[in-house]
Amino acid sequence: MKPVINSFLLLLPFFLSIAANRECYMCSGRNSVTCQQEIVNCTKGDKCVIISEEYKYNKTFFSVYKGCSRGLPCNQRIHGKVNDNLTLTYKIRCCDTDLCNVQFFEKPIPKKPTGYMCPSFLAQGIVEKSETKKKVQCPEKTDECFSYSGTIEKPDGELSNYTIRGCMSPAECKLNIFRMVGLRVHLSKYYECRYPEEALIDEKKKME
């Protein structure tokens, strides 16, 4: 009986660490690579997370978020691309010990495009018809084609209506466009993701 008790005592800290809520640093730095952090207790099963976001539209904005994972896909690079002048990339990094998300912004490393083509469209304002002959090559082969129309607030606070089409990571399509850090969506009139072959066939039919 004694060896069993000794084994239990040795494993007790491990079981307590699983049962306990994870302590993580939390803060949000919009249009900033740092933020004023505090310590929070996350929900059981959550990990600590750091999200580094790079948004480029004429100029480049960096934002960072630290906190609890809350169902986010861990250790992934997620992106959206309309053209070479309008891109969004963010890196989600998770760790699984107390206060492990001590670092701040990590610049997402750009990738050479290897994916399929999607229709590319950008207009300021809510546009009902966004047919286009322009295309953009997606960063990865698993990317989907997205269409969005609504109100967006850039990291510097500028608020405008946009209609955009391009490529997006499937993880972002599932999460939806509202989960970003520096870029904020106030109103979404239309938002859809489709597989590239479906989007291009549909676009061809519209242009005929």
UniProtKB/TrEMBL annotation:
Oxidoreductase found in the keyword field: no
First-listed, main subcellular location of the protein, grouped into a coarse class: secreted
InterPro entries according to UniProt: CNF-like_PLA2_Inhibitor, LY6_UPA_recep-like, Snake_toxin-like_sf
UniProt keywords, alphabetically: Secreted, Signal
UPAR/Ly6 domain ranges (all copies): 21-102, 130-183
Secreted is among the record's keywords: yes
Domain of life: Eukaryota
Compartments in which it is found: Secreted
Cellular-component GO terms for this entry: extracellular region
Signal sequence extent: 1-20
Protein's name according to its UniProt entry: UPAR/Ly6 domain-containing protein
